[in-house]
């Protein structure tokens, strides 16, 4: 066992620590199913890069729904809140890896796009709620998306660790590029949601993971 004194690990949640991408697919299926609509083949792809409100507006326009965007988002929020607190699981070996890093002396943070209403129940459900020194979301970093490094820099600042001593674990290409742009080491987690970007992810990241049993013990 090595020592990670002065080092920090910053983790994304959705698709990195949490095997959660299927939750949103199921929300789409159930939501449209309530209205007697089957999910079209191209729907998931079309909405994958949109912001929440954009998805609501697009869905209303595409399927001719009577709902307002606010009603749609509230319904999705409630469906997702139930799923994140009951169905979402941790990625293989994620919990063991977090314990290993804590034992090694590394500081741990979460940097996520998930709002607290989804983040907190999910972390409690999979048993990782008390393992982090800091938990920050894009909301805390001026609501700037992960195309900008703001959320990773905020996590590093709150941990009191320089960006050069931070290792980020992330599944999204835009997040990987953003963290690399400020001198952080980045390990990419393979996730179905990023399959289309995998070749480029392999090029730009410092290492790739298919589960946390392959993650570095020393940061």
Walkthrough of the structure:
The chain is an alpha/beta fold and 219 residues long. The protein is built from 9 helices and 8 strands. It has helices spanning 21-34, 43-47, 52-63, 69-86, 94-104, 116-126, 150-159, 173-181, 198-204, and strands spanning 8-11, 18-19, 89-90, 107-112, 134-137, 166-170, 185-189, 207-209. Strands 5-4-1-6-7-8 form a 6-stranded parallel beta sheet, with helices on both faces. Strands 2-3 form a two-stranded antiparallel sheet. Strand 7, helix 9 (198-204) and strand 8 form a beta-alpha-beta unit. Helix 8 (173-181) runs parallel beside helix 9 (198-204).
Brief digest:
The protein has 219 residues and is of the alpha/beta class. Helices cover 44% and strands 14% of the residues.
Topology:
Elements: E1 8-11, E2 18-19, H1 21-34, H2 43-47, H3 52-63, H4 69-86, E3 89-90, H5 94-104, E4 107-112, H6 116-126, E5 134-137, H7 150-159, E6 166-170, H8 173-181, E7 185-189, H9 198-204, E8 207-209
Parallel strand pairs: 1-4, 1-6, 4-5, 6-7, 7-8
Antiparallel strand pairs: 2-3
- How much helix, percentage-wise, in residues? 40-55%
**In terms of quaternary structure, what is this?**
single chain
Kindly report the spatial arrangement of strands forming the biggest sheet: 5-4-1-6-7-8
Low-confidence stretches: none
Residue-averaged pLDDT, rounded?
A: 94
The amount of beta strand, in percent, is 5-15%
Q: State Rg.
A: 18 Å
Main beta sheet strand tally, sense and closure = 6 strands, parallel
Q: What overall form do the CA principal axes indicate?
A: elongated
Structural class by secondary-structure content: alpha/beta
Termini separation: 12 Å
Task: Give the strand tally.
Answer: 8
């Amino acid at each position: 066992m090595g020592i990670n004194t002065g080092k920090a690990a910053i983790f994304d949640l959705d698709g990195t620590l949490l095997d959660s991408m299927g939750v949103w697919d199921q929300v789409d299926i159930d939501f449209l199913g309530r209205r007697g609509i089957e999910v079209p083949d191209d729907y998931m792809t079309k909405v994958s890069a949109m912001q929440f409100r954009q998805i609501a507006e697009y869905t209303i326009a595409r399927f001719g729904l009577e709902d307002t965007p606010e009603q749609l988002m509230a319904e999705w929020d409630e469906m997702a809140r139930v799923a994140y607190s009951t169905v979402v699981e941790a990625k293989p070996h994620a919990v063991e890896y977090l314990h290993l890093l804590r034992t090694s002396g590394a500081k741990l943070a979460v940097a996520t796009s998930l709002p607290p209403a989804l983040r907190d129940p999910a972390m409690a459900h999979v048993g990782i709620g008390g393992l982090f020194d800091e938990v920050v979301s894009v909301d805390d970093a001026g609501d700037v998306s992960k195309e900008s490094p703001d959320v990773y820099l905020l996590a590093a600042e709150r941990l009191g660790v320089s960006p050069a001593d931070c290792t980020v674990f992330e599944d999204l290409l835009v997040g990987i590029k953003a963290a690399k742009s400020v001198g952080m080491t980045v390990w990419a987690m393979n996730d179905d949601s990023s399959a289309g970007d995998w070749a480029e992810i392999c090029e730009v990241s410092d290492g790739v993971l298919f589960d946390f049993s392959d993650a570095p013990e020393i940061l």
